[in-house]
Amino acid sequence: DFLVFAALGPKLLGARVILDLHDLIPEFYAARGSHSMKSLAVRLVIWQEQISCRFADHVITVTDIWRETLIARGLPTSKISVVMNVADTRIFRPSRAELPSHHRNGALRLIYHGTLTHRYGVDLILQALAHVRHEIPGLCLTLIGAGDALDDLKRLAEELGVEDQVDFRSEVYASQLPPLIAQADAGVVPNRNDLFTDTLLPTKLLEYVALDTPVIAARTRTIAAYFDDSMVRFFRPGDAADLADAILDLHTDRSHLELLARNARKFDEKHSWSQVSAQYVALVDRLNGRQTVGKP
Length: 296
Description:
The chain is α/β, with parallel strands linked by helices. Helices cover 43% and strands 12% of the residues. The protein has twelve helices and nine strands. It has helices spanning 8-12, 25-33, 40-55, 64-72, 122-132, 150-160, 177-182, 203-210, 221-226, 240-252, 254-270, 273-287; strands spanning 18-21, 58-61, 80-82, 109-113, 140-144, 166-169, 186-189, 215-218, 233-235. A six-stranded parallel sheet has the order 6-5-4-7-8-9, with helices on both faces. β8, α9 and β9 form a beta-alpha-beta unit. The longest helix has 17 residues, at 254-270.
């Protein structure tokens, strides 16, 4: 957050400064180090967040929950806006020709893309596969990404006997993701529930939704604030057996997959990239004393 002070020179010359808080560092630091939010170390991180916010002319963050958190820490309501980190529909747009039929009775294909690390719960998907592999012939999972848990995940797949069902792929460009996601029957968002992940609205979830791909997700506070049971198949965070039940349910009832994809479009109708980008441009223009005319 304190890197905002790199703008000191331009600010002194009259430039307006926007601090973009995509992540709340105090929560991230507390969760990563297993600290209490009241510990001295975390209070120091909160202090640097607060002085950084005071220095900026305006602050933006990505969810209403984080906005309320920052307001509770003393940031004036008028000084913060939400600019959601939604999927860029220039890249993540559904192509009916590419999308699979969710009604077929064949193998169920799952996908996860993003950072491979413990807090994002990717190991839970492997454990869930081991639970249901004999009940869903041909079940497969594509894992796209890299991270500190990659080697552990490969070892776990071997230990569980699901290595033949898991396709590990290196990180790919965003533009290459849509056709890979389109081949899947469902995207999985298995975040564990800690001080940080409980407040995340994962971008991967929004990218699945933008591509009309049904989603299985951990029921964290922030995901549940934007999506309900008609839009996402929830499971209890950290519970591999409950995730396995969710996978089996959707394999058994393919019509539920189609229903989830259709209902999740309500999110995009309310928070489309065109709307969010227009709000962002309007904010920048307002800070510059200009009036936005037309669409960005």
